[in-house]
Every structure is written in C-alpha cells, then in structure tokens.
Amino acid sequence: MVLLSSFLLPSSCDRIETTSFSKGVHAKLKEKVSHLHFYFHDVVSGSNVTAVAVARPPNAQPPTSFGLVMVMDDLLTEGPEPTSRPVGRAQGLYAAAGLQEMGFLQAMNLVFVGGKYDGSVLTVLGRNAPLHAVREMPVVGGSGLFRFARGYAVARTHRLDMSTGNAIVEYDVYVMHY
C-alpha cells in the first residue's frame, strides 16, 4: 500500500501525483522498539528547584491541588541518586486536573543527552496520578532517532518526601520508532 494524501492505494498503482505542495515518498524504513530506563528528579523546594508553580487556584484545594500548574526542567539520571549519570531532562508542565483524586495532566519532552540518543526527544502527554503505585502515559511523538515515535511510559514513585514535595520517579519507556 502507498499512502498518498491520506488515501491508501494498492501498491500496484503506478501513478503518484506530485504537486508543488506535496509528493509521494517511497521509503523503506525499518521499525525498531526501544526500552529506556531512567529516574526523574522533581525538585519543588530547596536550593536547586527544577519545577515551579506558574498558576495556583484562588482557594486552597486539598487534597488534590486542583488548578495548580507547574513548569519543570527536571533531571533524568541513569540511577535513583541525583549524582548518578545524567541522561537527559524532562521539560514541560503538569497541571492538577482532578477534583476527587490527585491527577495531573502531564505534557513533557524527554530531551536526551550523551550517547546514542544525544539530542533526540520523546514527547509524553497523558494523565499522571502520582499517588498511584504505577502510572502509564502515552508517548505521542519524537524527534532525532525517535522520529515517528509512539509507545508508552510507565512511572513508579521511587521516593517522595511528603514534607518538601520533592520526588524521584522511576521510568520505563517503551517506544516504537524508525
């Protein structure tokens, strides 16, 4: 099958229309599946803050923090310790969107540094209920070595300091890409 202007045509179709706007592309790409494992360090208090509130609800909304919006540039590391080898940054935002239960709308780019994936990005967009033991969010795209990416990220809280709000979250990301 050949994809042409959002229509599927049989492979036997010889004619591919070309315009100044678009042209058919014949590409033989081999799809890969990658598993990435790393730790996400969300620091909301202390001396090296990596996530800040940019909007707060007019009235306190315990226990869900409904209306709170945070912007982050969180460190990603190979191991759970902040001094572990850096593998990237999680850049984006999370917004408390649940009234009955703490649940964030999380939109983030996982920007990888060093090694094979240096400069490559995965984009994650989905619901993150941080008090659940295991959360799953969709990978909706990517760039660099992750072009045409799709998949899912599984998050598990490794450590949460209830007095500061700082957290270390273990991520397993499974992604299909070319």
Measured as a percent range, the helix fraction is: under 10%
Number of domains: 1
The CATH architecture comes to Beta Barrel
Compute the gyration radius: what is it? Answer: 20 Å
Order of helices and strands: EEEEEEEEEEE
Cross-sheet strand order for the largest sheet: 3-5-6-7-8-9-10-11
Q: Which range does the strand content fall in?
A: over 45%
The CATH class, by name, is Mainly Beta
CATH fold assignment = AOC barrel-like
Count up the helices. 0
Task: Give structural notes.
Keywords: Apoplast, Secreted. A hairpin with a 6-residue loop joins β8 and β9 (135-143). This protein has strands at 2-4, 7-9, 32-42, 51-55, 69-77, 86-96, 104-112, 121-128, 135-143, 150-160, 167-177. The strands form two sheets. The protein has an eight-stranded antiparallel barrel. The protein has one domain (32-177): Allene oxide cyclase-like (AOC barrel-like), CATH 2.40.480. It has 178 residues and is an all-beta fold.
Give a brief description.
It holds the Pfam family Dirigent. With 178 residues, the protein is an all-beta fold.
Features:
two-stranded antiparallel ribbon, mainly beta, 178 residues, eight-stranded antiparallel β-barrel, AOC barrel-like
SSE topology sketch:
Blueprint lengths: L1 E3 L2 E3 L22 E11 L8 E5 L13 E9 L8 E11 L7 E9 L8 E8 L6 E9 L6 E11 L6 E11 L1
Antiparallel strand pairs: 1-2, 3-5, 3-11, 4-5, 5-6, 6-7, 7-8, 8-9, 9-10, 10-11
